[in-house]
Amino acid sequence: MPPALESATRPASLGDASAIRTRVWDLPTRVFHWALTVAVIGQLATGFGGVMEWHFRIGYAVLSLLLFRVIWGFVGGRWSRFAAFAYSPGSVVNYLRGRPHPDHLIGHSPLGAFSVFALLAILALQVATGLVADDEVMSAGPLTRFVSGATVSLATGWHTLVGKWIVIALVSLHVLAVLFYVAVKRRRLVRPMISGDKLVADGRAAPSRDDAASRLLALVVFAACAAFAAWIASLRA
């Protein structure tokens, strides 16, 4: 690999004089990440514990967060947008062969992007099936009366018997991948998701917008998403 390309595809370090601190993860994305983490843990705990009233409440919070992330994936900061980590098959192959694009070391890598999309998809499916699930004992989703009995039965089976284990598997894989990158590749993934900043070589990466206006926009978007989730909750008999 030519020296210039090797330098461009190597993570910046504290000792790299050419590296500058760059805002990669905007505040709304960071709040979403940690709020979803807490909410998913709460969902699993209340689900296994049979605390169904809180299971529903946290489920509506997850719905709000997922709706927000979908919208923020189009209007959020540079590195939070789906376009920034929706990689082509060729780009993924090059990454796996050890020829990463410089962008792979700034935002989500191709494997990290796959993890994000997979988690968002399975959580969305869990929320959707939960809204039309019915255990016929003590709890039923708010939308059960709008779908057929066959759909309710299928959704309930997926939500209670299959989906939750896939969520656990994906979350576990995500945590293991983060530990691998920290321990083996010496790449800090947790700290930037707290501070929002990464050291970027040569300062060539465009920072994510993270000012008062963008944060206000995020607050308005989330309020709208939460209002929609509250309306869905109000349909529960």
Would you mind describing this structure in some detail?
With 237 residues, this protein is mainly alpha-helical. It has one domain (3-14, 21-234): Transmembrane di-heme cytochromes, Chain C (Fumarate Reductase Cytochrome B subunit, Up-down Bundle), CATH 1.20.950.20. Helix content is 62%, strand content 3%. It contains 8 helices and 2 strands. The chain has helices spanning 3-8, 27-49, 52-75, 89-96, 110-131, 149-183, 190-195, 212-234, and strands spanning 20-23, 197-200. Helix 3 crosses helix 5 and helix 5 packs antiparallel against helix 6. Mean pLDDT is 88; it is low at 1-10.
**What is the total tally of β strands?**
2
How many distinct folded domains? 1
Fraction in beta strands: under 5%
CATH homologous superfamily heading: Transmembrane di-heme cytochromes, Chain C
Show unreliable segments. Answer: 1-10
- Helical fraction equals 55-70%
- Under CATH at level 1, the class stands as Mainly Alpha
In CATH terms, what is the architecture? Up-down Bundle
Determine the number of helices (DSSP H or I, runs of at least 4 residues): 8
Choose one word for the global shape.
Answer: globular
Strands ordered across the widest β-sheet: 1-2
Q: Round the Cα radius of gyration to an integer and report it.
A: 20 Å
* Terminal residue distance: 63 Å
Assign the structural class, choosing from mainly alpha, mainly beta, alpha/beta, alpha+beta, or little secondary structure.
mainly alpha
Largest sheet: 2 strands, antiparallel
**Average pLDDT metric:** 88
